[in-house]
Design brief:
The protein is of the alpha/beta class. The chain contains 16 helices and eleven strands.
């Protein structure tokens, strides 16, 4: 849409010229901000906050009031889809997400509905519409979903896991059951992201948080193939603009070429991959997003500034880089240190872009 005042982020995703490197942070609306903690307390808990479109909008916009960020990201959770499938999402304090029911058999997979985004996840679409309206073209809005493999791990395990024993056991003993679940999830994620785009999301990111837990062969078969299915089914033009797609596999630095082959516009990198080497490997096929270690935000601001300078230099001249952390910001980070990070990108990155 022509009313977008700052399209630096969207331009960089499409490797078009920009005046400086755009920057945003994964989990930029979150617990490190005192104003977020206040709003969450007002809502009662995380689920009530996420399911209230007005409050979800409020926390989405909070970091933009503090920092010169180049994108807003919808405040939601990757587990909305399994919850809409009837698994009963809840959060234990200090324990992370839990499901009342697990999915470990063909009968249980067959019983899962594919959610209707406007009916079953209407609170998310209402939040997208509300945020777009309140942003008023200030910066673009990012929509997102979890990857099928990542969602499946939570559904099979019943919550978070360190070793994914139940999910990997299903993978090696009943691969057909896991494939049936992943296919249903890929269909669900595709319609969910398309509904977000129609509601106003101007770019979408697929979070494959646990793809890095798979072997090389298993990643291609059980994670990447289903992200490919989603990319193939997404709306790529809306409101007269390209809608860029970002794939992010945490721990996926060894698979960048295969990820680029999906036709995604950009790849997210965690902090274990060298940005300059990644750029050499994928060339001009995709933009790259990342990839400062989130723990660097515990360093003094001068050290943060130096690390931003190092990462910018590693990528080098030209567009196609979106500065971000290599994963979500830690809840214990001082908001002033996040500000030092963002300000350093704004200050230093212009030198890498010939206007």
């Amino acid at each position: 849409m022509s009313d977008l005042k700052n399209d630096r982020f969207l331009r960089a995703l499409l490797r078009q010229p920009v005046d400086r490197t755009p920057v945003w942070m994964m989990r930029q609306a979150g617990r490190y901000l005192p104003e977020y903690r206040e709003t969450r307390a007002q809502a009662g808990d995380f689920m009530k906050l996420m399911m209230n479109p007005q409050l979800a909008c409020e926390v989405t916009l909070q970091p933009l009031d503090r920092y010169p960020l180049d994108a807003a990201i919808l405040f939601s959770d990757i587990l909305t889809i399994p919850d809409a499938m009837g698994l009963g999402l809840y959060f234990e304090t200090g324990e992370g997400p839990r499901f009342a029911k697990t999915v470990r058999s063909q009968v249980e997979v067959d019983a899962l509905p594919i959610p209707d985004p406007e009916k079953d996840l209407g609170y998310v679409m209402d939040a997208v519409r509300t945020i777009r309206r309140e942003l008023n073209g200030h910066v673009p809005l990012i929509g997102f979903a979890g990857s099928p493999w990542t969602l499946a791990t939570y559904m099979v395990e019943g919550g978070s896991s360190k070793d994914f024993r139940a999910a990997k056991t299903l993978m090696v003993t009943q691969p057909a059951v896991l494939h049936a679940l992943l296919d249903k999830l890929a269909q669900s994620v595709t319609s969910y992201l398309n509904a977000q785009i129609l509601a106003g999301a101007q770019a979408v990111q697929i979070f494959d948080s646990w793809g890095g837990a798979l072997s090389h062969a298993a990643y291609q078969e059980f994670s990447l193939a289903y992200m490919q299915q989603i990319v193939n089914g997404l709306i790529r033009e809306h409101d007269g603009r390209r809608v860029p797609v970002i794939l992010f596999t945490k721990g996926g630095g060894q698979w960048l070429e295969a990820m680029a082959d999906t036709g995604a516009d950009a790849l997210g990198l965690d902090w274990t991959t060298d940005l300059g080497q990644a750029r050499q490997r994928v060339g001009s096929r995709v933009a790259l997003q990342g990839n400062m270690d989130p723990s660097m935000l515990f360093a003094p601001p001068a050290r943060i500034h130096d690390e931003v300078a190092r990462i910018l230099s590693s990528y080098g001249q030209g567009s196609g880089h979106i500065f971000n952390l290599g994963h979500g910001i830690d809840q214990h980070v001082d908001p002033a240190h996040a500000g030092a990070f963002i300000n350093a990108v704004v200050e230093l990155s212009g030198a890498y872009h010939a206007v």
